[in-house]
Design brief:
alpha/beta; 7-stranded mixed sheet; 11 strands; 46% helix
């Protein structure tokens, strides 16, 4: 009963705020200028949660949005990376935002995204918050890989277009011709969407004035662990603050050679192994630690990386260097090669695996986890034979057993990605390095660097220049 009340109360409160606003806005009291509230972020490394105490201050939004604000960043992080959708809504309500509008996406629309919008008045301005969803987006994973052959990142472009249309309608309905302040935030995929949306708003200027009445100094865009979203020739805006852990492999993709960048100020946090575990023990959990990072030369004499940041650069460098003359083989060497040999196949596989709350992926993992090492070697040997459909033939009954819906022709073509990858000899020789436990742990270190708990402790001690 208590859990049901916790879920229902935020929605009821939001409706009451909306009704009060519609009934008599002149009699409505302004929300508090200082609001302290608790919220949870997920601790991904041990599947728990951490309760943070957050402080909202109206004063944050009287400052210049083009200047990085550590206090606003610390508030934006738990808003951007909630533990679940209920927490996301609770955060917006707790800070006194009204006229709340939200959309939760479903499996049918991989190129769309979930969001929450809300409003507060700050002096003579209308402050609108836009949270781009970070949790439980499942099938949307596929659009992260929809880079496109040229231009801005296609997947983030489509998602941000969708939200931007909604935002313009929201402003036109409630706050036409009013000066605006915008607070945009998101984590990981949500961060990429936040960056792309902020850029779209600032660029949408058919004449001298923007379509939305917001100045650069009134844009407060804070993204966390966002991938690159716009072409490297695009203008950069200092009011878009893209904050990234330098040891994060996920946020470093796609490779810089694909011609994409972050659309604003890029701020790097240092994921140094000598410091990170101490911070996790102090601020999160004394028993929580990162995988052990090993310098490259200890693994193989020819490996020259010494830090996680250098490991990330090494991985990306090896991916784009894995060229091949085999037209059948998959390649990450260029954006065009990725688009033609990898993108659509990998995107469709992800759609299938992440559909229905990832039941297909979980069932596949369960199937493989019950095999011995020799059986696994035999299975992957069969699945990677060139121009055969063994992976597809084995995968179909696994998906059928958990009632996952798929198109047979699309899935068969997507499954050909596995033998295509293994038929790129340069790529296979690189992937084979992950057989070594130390190298594999280095990879895990750079993946765990993407976790909210890691980001939180590094941002907490970050000092801007």
């Amino acid at each position: 009963m208590r859990k049901r009340l916790l879920i229902v109360l935020p929605t009821v409160l939001a409706l009451l705020l909306l009704l009060c606003a519609c009934e008599d806005s002149s009699r409505r009291e302004a929300p508090g200028d200082v609001i302290v509230f608790n919220s949870n972020i997920g601790i991904f490394m041990n599947s728990t949660e951490k309760t943070l105490t957050n402080t909202f201050k109206t004063e944050y939004f009287r400052r210049d949005g083009t200047k990085f604000d550590k206090e606003l960043a610390m508030l934006s992080l738990p808003v951007a990376a909630p533990s679940d959708r209920e927490t996301a809504m609770d955060n917006i309500v707790a800070m006194g935002f009204d006229n709340i509008k939200y959309f939760w996406n479903t499996d049918e629309f991989p190129l769309l995204c979930s969001y929450i919008m809300g409003h507060r008045t700050v002096d003579d301005y209308e402050l609108i918050v836009v949270y781009l969803n970070f949790v439980n987006y499942d099938v949307e994973w596929a659009s992260n890989l929809e880079i496109g052959v040229s231009g801005n990142h296609y997947g983030f472009e489509k998602g941000s277009q969708w939200v931007y249309r909604t935002l313009k309608n929201y402003v036109n309905e409630y706050y036409p011709d009013k000066p605006l302040k915008l607070w945009l935030t998101g984590y990981s995929r949500g961060g990429g969407l936040s960056d792309a949306l902020a850029y779209k708003i600032l660029e949408d200027k058919p004449g001298e004035d923007r379509v939305l009445n917001v100045a650069d100094e009134d844009m407060f865009a804070y993204s966390f662990e966002a991938p690159a979203t716009v072409t490297d020739s695009a203008e950069s805006y200092p009011c878009i603050h893209s904050i990234i852990v330098n040891s994060d492999l996920i946020a470093a993709m796609p490779p810089g050679s694909y011609g994409l960048k972050h659309p604003g100020e890029k701020i790097l946090l240092n994921g140094d192994p000598d410091n990170l575990n101490n911070l996790l023990h102090k601020y999160i959990d004394p028993n929580l630690s990162m995988p052990v990072f090993t310098k490259g030369s200890v693994i193989l004499t020819e490996l020259t990386f010494n830090t996680p940041e250098e490991f990330v650069a090494y991985v990306l460098g090896r991916l784009v260097a894995a060229t091949t003359e085999d037209d059948y083989a998959a390649s990450f060497a260029t954006r065009d090669k990725f688009y033609s040999t990898v993108q659509n196949r990998l995107s469709y596989l992800l759609q299938v695996f992440m559909r229905q709350r990832r039941v297909g992926l979980n069932t596949l993992v369960s199937y493989l986890s019950n095999k011995t090492q020799s059986e696994l070697i035999s299975i992957f040997g069969e699945w990677t034979i060139k121009e055969q459909d063994n992976f597809y033939n084995n995968l179909c009954p696994i998906l059928d057993s958990c009632s996952v819906i798929y198109d047979e022709d699309s899935l068969k073509e997507a499954c050909s990605l596995l033998p295509r990858i293994f038929n790129n000899g340069n790529l296979f020789s690189f992937l084979f390095l992950f057989v070594d436990e130390k190298f594999r742990n280095d990879g895990l270190y750079t993946i765990y660097s993407h976790c909210p708990e890691v980001f939180y402790v590094l941002l907490k001690v970050y000092e801007a220049n």
